[in-house]
Amino acid sequence: MVIRDSETEAEEQSDRRFLAFIDTLMPVLTHPAQEDSLRAYCTGLCLENGRKSMEPIAANLAPKRTQAAHEALQNFITDAPWSADALLDSVREYTLPHMIAQAPIQAWIIDDTGMPKKGKHSVGVAHQYCGQLGKQANCQVAVTLSVANEDASLPIAYRLYLPKEWADDQERRKRAGVPDDIMFATKQNIALEQIHTARVAGVPNGVVLADAGYGNDSAFRDRLTALDIPYAVGVSNDMTAWPPGITPLPPKKWNGRGRRPTNLRRNTRRKPLSVKKIAMSLPADSYQTVKWREGTSKELSSRFAAVRVRAAQKETKKQRSEEWLIIEWPENEKEPTKYILSTLPDSIDLAELVRIAHLRWRIERDFQELKDELGLNHFEGRKWRGFHHHAALCIATYGFLVAERSRFSPSGYCSVSLPELSANHRSCQSSDHHGTPQSRILTLAETAPGISNRQTLGAVSVLQAPEPTRNKRSSKRTIAETQ
Fold this sequence. Notes:
By secondary structure, the chain is of the alpha+beta class. The protein has 3 domains: 6-82 and 414-482, no CATH class; 85-230 and 343-396 and 404-410, Nucleotidyltransferase, domain 5; 234-249 and 263-341, no CATH class. It contains 15 helices and 15 strands. Strands 1, 2, 3, 4, 5, 6, 7, 8, 9, 10, 11 and 12 form a 12-stranded mixed β-sheet that branches. A 3-stranded antiparallel β-sheet has the order 13-14-15. Strand 3 and strand 4 (153-160) form a beta hairpin. It is globular and about 85 Å long.
């Protein structure tokens, strides 16, 4: 009689869910022959060792026929005409109910993520700011929209930013396969398009969070307000605003000749100030210590103040509505370090303002895991379609992880890997303070036909090995035969 412990049974259940999840993605494909490649690629993204680009994935999954496997994956990622956006929609529909079961969606997080690149031929690559490096560098940049609550977050939209020199260069566009309908668009306009698409799709509303790259753009903020979407967005310290109780001067009195004056006025004594000057002028007791969440080793807290101001951008004829200026000034710093403008209700308290604004940290963690664990930045192709296909499959695999965490962790966040483990024992296994399993090791042997045995593959992150696929249309084909 074989005795099965509860952990083994839980792993097998998770394996079945993984296979069922992959099946939910199949309707976006354009041909049955692509199904094995989809399974294989998602499996390869889970592999713990090596890069997560097409050739290393093929070598890991099919070491005895690497070339044929690589050609199959190359065709699936670079050339097959399935929709990356449709696949992300399927991932969202699968993952969101698991997230919402723990807590309602509270935030829509706008961000862009950079991937350093050498050369100049990969689609969209240019010398531009790269967040991963924290400086200007040769890189690709993708604009993303994520949904988040206190327990989890998930990217639901992902689009490459195409610099103007790329958008206007027909020869480069053709070589990289940029679709004809993709024109130059600012990152802010790409983000607004993603928000519009999410609203049309019925994604639960959230407060829009973004850094100063978006928050400094008054047109971006105005568009959110026109859509009746509240925001809490970063702004730079030199952005100007009218301090509490101070407003522009009214238009000049009309003297009866010419057009009636309509522009609001300023003078040397009555003018807006930079948000830094406003922050520095506040009384010391305006700043309070606020704790916003539990960190890995301690509670996270800092000093904050919030005042009602009116932004001074583009207000020639009408003064802007009041909104919150949230200021973070850590106790050991000589001056404030962060400034946030927010249209959250004037009745909200400081602690809630801070808590919502700091939900933006989740996107940084998401993309750290997507890059470090699932190879988001490992794509080596040059074309528009391949770039988005690879990213969509990385996010799909991550979406499954998010759903699994939501099953086991109703009160906290679990990273994909545990840095304190040694290199020989790195895994996705973790537990919360009650000892509940949250994510586990995947030792995949036969997720897709043609994959090598477990001894060859070794440890793989995410799940325990699924049983061989029993899909009627593809169970008899090897990965090499799907090209």
